[in-house]
Each structure stands twice: as structure tokens, then as C-alpha cells.
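Section 3.1 - Work completed
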Amino acid sequence: MQPPERKNIFDALLITFIFLLICWAVFLIDSQLGGDLRKWGLRPRSVQGLWGIATVHFLHKDLGHIINNTWAFLVLNTYLFFFYRGIAFKVLPRLLLFSGILLWLWGRPAIHIGASVAIYGIAVFLFFSGTFRKSLPLMAVSALVLFSYGSMFWGMFPIQPEMSWEGHLSGAATGLALAYLYRQEGPQRKKYNWEIEEEIEATKEIEPESAMEDFNAIEVEYQELKTEKEHREQRHHNSSESDQQIIYHYKEESKKKPPTSEG
């Protein structure tokens, strides 16, 4: 039985390795074909470019391009699956899908390729997830991401014409949306003892009022039942007196002679 930390690292590296293995396999095949696979990249607002929503993350221009993306994805995706293991399997597929869709909707007319779309999404998710949760360990991860990859911020602006800044911005926007969407899931901030004690004290202050309300409700119900019982007993008493009166008259009338019928 592996310790939880070691298992988390193993899972994080395994998922990251599978993704990068696909990227490198596609790159090597594309290199042998002379770059023919790049035409299957994402082409915004093109029916043929719809395939690119699925393929954009696995196609790369040259060796330098894929090496840079490999290192960044290796680090950031490992962070994602180690620190957010409970929701990482939800976040990554949605990030790959919706960042591609967003890029297809508004990107400039060109062929967009590269795993940097996903890399920007993961980096932004890691940064804002720690911020939203206000957890010190996760905020430390956010600070680490900001310190290590803060320069990526400029990649979301049209500074270099050959760079798909729209893809970077699409990934970042998707990462931000997912960080907010899943802010209540996964690891949460641990409460300090003094916070727990304050909640207990607040509960104690509320309990007497709640108990008094319950007591008042029970008392009202008891009075209603008591009143209804008294009315029922009164009706029964009146009915008993009425029956006795009828019996009394019957006895009096029984002493008289029977009526005579005239023919």
C-alpha cells in the first residue's frame, strides 16, 4: 500500500506523461511527414477547423516549440494533479475542450497549434484556485506559479504576430472560469481551533432562543388541546343532562293511560 503522497505524485506524473507522450509521438510523425499534420490545427470559425478543438493541444511547430511546452506542462500539470487530485480529472478535460471552443469562436483566421493553450489555462487555474480558497498551502502554490511563470502574462497580448495570443487568452479565461466553478470542491482551507470555538459559542448563543421558541410552540399546542378537551367534556355533560331529561319525561308519560282511538 503506497502512502497517499507517493500515490498522488505517481498519478500526477502518469497523467502528465501520457499527455506529453501523445504530443511527442504526433510531433515525430509530423516531422517525418514534412509538417502535413499541422493543417489539422484549429482554424477559427471554419467547419474544417472544428477538428482543431481536439488536436490543437498536441500539434507543435518545431523542436524548440515542443520543448518549451513540454517543460511548462510537466511542472504545471503535476501541480494540478498533486494539489487538486480530487477535481483534476474534471478540470483538465474541460480545460482542453472549452479553451479550444473559445479559441475557435473568436481567434483570428490562422492555424493555431500548441499545448500552450492548456498551459495558460492550468497556470491561471492554479493561481486563482488558491486565492479563492484562501488556504495557506494552496496560496503558496499560487505564489510559486506566479513567481515561476509570471512572465507568461505578456503572452496574452498581441506582441508577437507569430504567437497565438488568442489561444493563450482563451486558455487563461477557461482556467479562471473553472477555478471559480470548482472553488467549493477539492481541498479547502482548514479551520483553526479558535474559529471552531467561535462557531461553537455562536451555536450556544442561538440554542436557548431556539429552545424557547420550541417551548412556546409546545405550550400553545398544549393550551389548544386543553381547550378542545374542555369543550368536548362540556358537550358530553350537556348531552348527558339532555338524555336524563328525556328519560324523566318518558317515565312521567308512562304513568298515563294509553290514548283511545275513535272509530
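Second construct:
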Amino acid sequence: MSGGVAAAVVVVAVAACGSSNGSSSASKAAAPANATSVATANGADGKYLVGASGRALYLWVADPSGKSVCAGACARFWPPLLTTSTPAAGGGVTAGRLGTITRSNGSKQVTYDGHPLYYFALDKSKGSLKGQGSDNFGAKWWLVAPSGTAITKTAAPVSSGY
């Protein structure tokens, strides 16, 4: 990583830490146009977090708060929500709960209420919730409620997904 890029990453990381006290509207106004955004959607399992594409976001119970331990094959099936700037809060999301962590490869992963956020590779479109309740890689994967808690109920039978 060049010195300029490393400095930019440090500036983004510091900015992410400093934005946790802002309101939703202030955070949206301050976020760059290309910021990663997190919003909410409604489904049979309740209201849950989604990425900019409208795809569901999950937390993994094996992750300690503020750290991701999903890498390699895990991260291929459960791609982390990555960003290069301060994440932006969309409708129904509390900006102060958004943050970032640095993954072992140096990339920045978006967190919500301290939980690293992931997509599920088999959720190909908006509204697909195939990962809900899965126990892939030895621990449960759950949708994330706007309160920051795991949604631990499932409306449909759970399959391994792969």
C-alpha cells in the first residue's frame, strides 16, 4: 500500500470513529456520494438491515464484538460488507450504530452495533433470505434488526445453503 493510500485509510478510519455521535441526517449529509449505505427492509422475519443493493445483511454469532473471524472459505460464502469511507445510514438505520473494523487483510468492514456485517452469497437478489438461521462454519448466521440485535426467528425452514 502506498503512503498516500495508507494515509487516506487512516483518515477514513479516524473519520469513522468521529462520526458515531452524529444524527442520521447529519451523517447522510456528511457522507461522500460513494459511501457504503445501510438501510432497512421488511420481511417475514421482521425489519432487517440491507446493503445499498437491497440484499440482506447478517451477523455471525462466532464473531466477537468488533472483530471478524470469518475469512477464507467463510468469506467466500459470507462476503463481508466492505467500505472505503464512512458508512451512511439509510432509512430506519441509526447512524451512531454504524462503524468499521479493519479485517486481517487490511480492508474495512462495516459494523452495526459492533457486529461485523455480511452478505450471503446465495442471496442473489433483494428479499432473498436463504442465510437466515444457517449454521455454516460452525455458528449461527442471523439477520440484523435496526436495534442492532440478531433476529433469531425464521419464517421458513433453514437449509445449509451449499
